[in-house]
């Protein structure tokens, strides 16, 4: 089961990367790549694609949330905080209560980890 899922994720990432190489570039494609790489544990690539995603669409609260997670996985707490703070603004502007709640919790956890 795990191996099957890994192959599916790899195929999905390869397909999305091919689209990007052909010149297709938008927030949805970058979000898919960012989420895929985050799920695969490649946090640096995830952060790269998610940064592009929010550059295309600064109101994409789900992308900000995942960008913060990618930065946290890279042990870049300052960048994670910044992403979640910007994500909170985006979530509030769109009335995305679930994303707002999640990022508020992430920020509180980050505050507790601070020395």
Topology:
Layout: H1 2-21, H2 27-40, H3 43-56, H4 61-73, H5 77-94, H6 97-113
Q: Overall 3D geometry?
A: globular
Task: Return residue spans where pLDDT drops below 50 for at least 5 consecutive residues.
Answer: none
Number of domains: 1
CATH architecture descriptor name: Alpha Horseshoe
Question: Which structural class do the helices and strands define?
Answer: mainly alpha
Please provide the ordered H/E string of secondary-structure elements.
HHHHHH
End-to-end Cα distance: 41 Å
Strand composition percent? under 5%
Number of helices: 6
Supply the CATH superfamily name.
Answer: Tetratricopeptide repeat domain
Under CATH at level 1, the class stands as: Mainly Alpha
Helical content class: over 70%
Q: Characterize the biggest β-sheet.
A: none
What's the average pLDDT? 92
What do we call the CATH topology? Serine Threonine Protein Phosphatase 5, Tetratricopeptide repeat
Number of strands: 0
């Amino acid at each position: 089961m795990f191996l099957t899922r890994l192959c599916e994720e790899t195929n999905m990432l390869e397909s999305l990367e091919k689209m990007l190489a052909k010149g297709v570039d938008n927030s949805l494609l970058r979000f898919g790549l960012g989420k895929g790489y985050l799920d695969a544990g490649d946090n640096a690539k995830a952060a790269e694609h998610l940064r592009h995603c929010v550059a295309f669409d600064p109101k994409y609260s789900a992308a900000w949330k995942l960008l913060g997670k990618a930065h946290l996985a890279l042990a870049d707490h300052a960048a994670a905080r910044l992403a979640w703070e910007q994500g909170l603004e985006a979530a509030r502007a769109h009335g995305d209560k679930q994303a707002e709640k999640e990022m508020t919790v992430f920020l509180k956890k980050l505050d507790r980890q601070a020395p």
